[in-house]
Amino acid sequence: MDRELVIRAQGGDLGAFEAVVASSHPRLYRVAQGILRDADRAEDATQQALIEIWKYLRRLRDPDRFDSWSYRLLVRACVKEAKSSPRWMPGIEISPSDEPRATDAFGSVVDRDQLERGFRRLSVEHRAVIVMRYLLDMPLEQVADALDIPVGTVGSRLNRAMRSLRAALEADERPTTVLTEAQWSD
To answer: What interhelical angle do 151-173 and 140-147 show, nearest 10?
Structure first.
């Protein structure tokens, strides 16, 4: 984010704030969609984060940290949105950049579906570190700054999230056993 633009927005320049929103909205929405896995809820969380940015922008001490600060507000909005959501989640809209590039279209759809189910089983906090680390390609230190947590906590959350995701994927691969009527009555 352009430092001077943030400073002007902090000073009350509405045009500067509109420019900040215009440049921030796409990246914030993409992260929210990655965390929440639902386009409508992601838009709600993004809008809530933008409202919080508007309300508290003057309190931001270092304009150079705007991006990390805005991610922190977004993740908080995502957590709040996730807590208010039902346990089931509707399907995510797939953008062209998210489309698989594999030659086996059926296999890639099955893999993506399995990965999506596993990802939805993760907590919002675990999804947030995975999205920031792998979708945004942020270094651990930057993720820690954005989430306002120690780097070690980011590492442990990432480790736990990946283990949970692997376990969910392995559980999906296990064959289910169908009991016969005789086995059921025993």
So the answer is: 100
Distances (CA, A) of 87 to 9, 30, 57, 76, 115: 38, 21, 33, 19, 18
CB within 8 A of 75, min separation 6: which ones?
31, 35, 124, 128, 146, 147
Domain count, the chain: 2
31, 55, 85 - which closes a domain: 85
Q: Which residues of the chain have pLDDT under 70?
A: 85-110, 172, 174-186
pTM: 0.74
Would you state the pLDDT for residue 115?
80
Residues 81 and 107 both lie in one domain:
no
Res 59: pLDDT: 94
What are the φ/ψ torsions at residue 84 (nearest 5 degrees)? -90, 0
119 plus 73 within the same structural domain: no
Sequence length of the chain is 186
19 and 58 in a common domain: yes
Q: For 36-87, write each residue's pLDDT tens digit.
A: 989 999 999 999 999 999 999 999 999 999 999 999 999 999 999 988 866 5
- Do 107 and 169 share a domain, yes or no? yes
